[in-house]
Structure formats: structure tokens, C-alpha cells
Design a protein that fits this description.
Layout (H helix, E strand, L loop, with lengths): L1 H9 L2 E4 L12 H5 L4 H9 L7 H11 L4 E4 L6 H15 L8 E4 L3 H14 L13 E3 L2 H8 L10 E4 L1 H9 L10 E5 L1 H4 L2 H13 L6 E6 L4 H10 L4 E5 L5
Parallel strand pairs: 2-7, 2-8, 3-5, 3-6, 4-5, 6-7
Antiparallel strand pairs: 1-8
Helix pairs in contact: 4-5, 5-6, 7-8, 8-10
Bound molecules: adenosine-5'-diphosphate and magnesium ion.
Length: 247
Amino acid sequence: EEDARILRKSYKGNISGNDIPLPIKSFEDLITRFSFEKKLLNNLIENGFTEPTPIQCEGIPLALYGRDVLACAPTGSGKTLAFLIPLLQQTIDTKETQGLKGLIISPTKELANQIFAEAVKLSQKIFLAKKRPLQVAILSKSLGAKLKNKAVSNKKYDIIVSTPLRLIDAVRNEALDLSDVRHIVFDEADKLFDKTFVEQTDDILNACNDPRLRKSMFSATIPSNVEEIAQSIMTDPVRVIIGHKEG
Ligand code: ADP
Ligand code: MG
């Protein structure tokens, strides 16, 4: 507890909510505290991720305990891995289930591509039940078309990264079924919950109708209107602010 307090002070972490778990101090802590996949730890280290950043120290255990997370940390502070690592682990934990379990929503294609590239690196050599490799996809126009005409099974992918409109299109033409999604991540949530996107975001949330759905939001800024929406759609969330709250 004392260690956690010192660690939090060192990175000016402001964490609020009920029953806040302790942060991790190293990625190896994940092995001792959770039944964490060793191959995932290896992939982190092989890609040069040896020490977690503050938002990763706080965010990863929260998501692994199944909490809804509202996270605010500066640009360049490692938010992508803060949500990818637990999302990959949770996918491994539900390996018996076929089909789409994790969704990452990004306001732009460029950002979606970056998230996808990181997810691919971290999911190397990870297999689920029956030696099926963990499959991550970006919902491109062509993948959307293949899913629609059933050239690709909509159960093939475990995790999908998408922009809002492309995802809504896929849901509308029954190319994708979001009813088994267990965890949805909104990256750059300030944009996704702003006027331009909020209706689309709402449509996506309505299509994710598993009652066990967990929600995470990551952003460099959390304007108060976004925070209000966030608090209203989340269940017993933990709010993590690293550095100073902007917006
Ligand atoms: P943010 O989304 O907060 O702006 P990113 O997730 O894009 O930040 O990460 C910024 C950079 O830091 C990327 O190049 C990423 O690979 C790198 N990075 C993330 N986590 C770590 C880590 N634990 N150790 C080393 N580099 C990291
Ligand atoms: Mg980012």
C-alpha cells in the first residue's frame, strides 16, 4: 500500500473510484498477480516494452479485474498498450468462446491502423482453444465486404479495431454481430463522445448487448461533458488521471 502511494505520487497519479486495485510496478507483476499469459509477456519484452508507463501501471490491473475505466493521460504516454494488454489477456481467458470478444473504436483510420499494428505485434504466437491463433483485424472496407458476403466468417476474429462508421455499416448489413463483445475500448474518447460522433458511438453501444460488457475510455483530455456521458454509461468506473486533467 505504501509502495503504491509512493509510486502514484511519483507520476502525479490521481485515481478515484471504489475498491481501487494496486498498480503494477513491472510487467512481471502481471505473472504473480494474475494468471497472465507468458507469451504475452514475452511479446512485450521482445518488442522493447520492458517497463510499464504510469498509465499502464494503473490501467492494466483495473481492466484485468474487470473494471470500467476512464483514463486520461498525456499524448505519448503509452495509452495504446494500457488497453491492449488487458484486452489481449481477457481474450485469452475466454478462449473457449468463438467470435468477436473485443472491440477498439478509434475516431480515425490512421489511429486505427496504429492500434492494429501494435495489437499484431503483441498477439504473435498466442493460440486459443484448438490451436486457433488469436486473431486481430482492422475493419477495412475490403474486410467489411468479405464479411458481408460471407467470404470470411464473422466468427473468425477475436478482436476488431474500427472507426465508428465502418463498424456501424458492418452491423447494419449483418456482416458483424456484436452480441458477444465483452470489452469495448474507446480511444481518443474525447472525440468519440463529442457531437460529431456521439450518435454513432451510441449505436455501437446499443449493438453490444452482452450484459457483461465492460467499457474503457482513453483520452489525453476529458472535457466535462464527456466525463458526464462516461459516468452515465459506465458501471462503478475507476477514473485514472496521470499528470494534470486537461480539457
Ligand atoms: P498515447 O496513445 O498515450 O499517445 P502511444 O500508446 O501511442 O501513446 O505510445 C507512445 C509511444 O510509446 C509508442 O511509440 C509506444 O510504442 C511507446 N511505448 C508505449 N508503452 C511503452 C513502454 N512500456 N515502454 C516503452 N515504450 C512504450
Ligand atoms: Mg493514443
